[in-house]
Target: Probable dual-specificity RNA methyltransferase RlmN
Amino acid sequence: MKKTKQVMPRVEQGPRPSLSFTERRHGKPPKHLADLSRSERRALVADLGYPQFRADQLSKHYFEHNCVDPEQMTDLPQAQRADLTRVMLPQLITKVRDQVADGGVTIKTLWKLFDGAVVESVLMKYPDRATLCISSQAGCGMACPFCATGQAGLTRNLSAGEIVEQLRQARQLAEEGIFGEPVRVTNVVFMGMGEPLANFPAVRDALHRMIEPAPEGFGMSARNITVSTVGMVPVIKKLADEGLPVTLAVSLHAPDDGLRDDLIPINSRYKVGELLDTARYYFVRTGRRVSIEYALIKDMNDHQWRAELLAAELNSRGRGWAHVNPIPLNPTPGSIWTASTTADTGVFVQTLTDAGISTTIRDTRGSDIDGACGQLAADVVDRDHVSRRAARAQAAVDARIEAHRGEPKDFDSTLAAIAAVTNGDIDE
Ligand code: SF4
Model:
């Protein structure tokens, strides 16, 4: 049996969520056209005894027309259609339900996978585009204490086909007029359930399918695709070297290791400095400005001195390579995590802007349907398991996090507090 790899946080003082990279379920979904490169598809079709170009015809139906219905594939011989679609286009995800919010421009969909695992995606219409927020794992092993998905742990990685199918179905719905008129899905963000870079092989293959033109893939613009990470440093490097200039979003949420160790458990392995160095490497390698995501949590990470520290950390690595997105927090039901006040948010943003950091408060679409990653699924799957584990984890984290709440609000008081315990023996 595979041993679960665990990383215990530096500030460990009791039970708390621990990182997990091992899947609880090992069943593999059926192979699908979207799991395969063009040459692999052609080889598979040849193995079935059909001409290789049938693979390209099938791929065009899938990627150009979002079509999986053999009846509509009239350029394929009738006798081959059923066999080709059965082998190449097995049904990977089944809709459980939609939730509509924001006056009809946000649709959150819960999907059931072949083994009963559930994931979600959120389709958002804007005046000039539609964006799909997509899941890359069922559950998540990153254990972020403010996140319902993280409290339930990792069920399993999605296959590339399961990731791509969320997009194909969203494209089909949007183009067929679910928003009242045909809309193209131009943007994808990997900000649904899961840490995408903990499932790198499938996410990398899915990115190729999204970016490469038909018959290889959908032919979307790489710059319209955002991959978010809590800080899988070595995999950020791999992604940078992959030659896919997608946008990287780093969920930072704290500029200091003391707090980030508690907010983002992977920080126990990859510290803020190393993470920002790697994010900067990503910018240099791809030319894509990195997004720094910062969920503003009341009296916890929204202090002005943290905005100053964040600006200093970013500016010390050069100008213009990163853009900060403060996010008004969408709290987990029943948790202690609450959004910053408007006044504190304003000061935080102004402090960053004054330091020359480009900053935009992020849209919080779907907040009335628990729009933060994984909350809908956590609500449906195994509620008892989630709440038992959440309660234990939350109690331990809450106890430690109180210390952060008590921290002084301004940088001078922080220096004075440090000076008090070090007898003034610090460098200013
Ligand atoms: S916030 Fe994202 S990375 Fe953290 S536990 Fe939730 S899904 Fe995973």
Observations:
- Residues 152 and 194 are 11 Å apart (CA to CA).
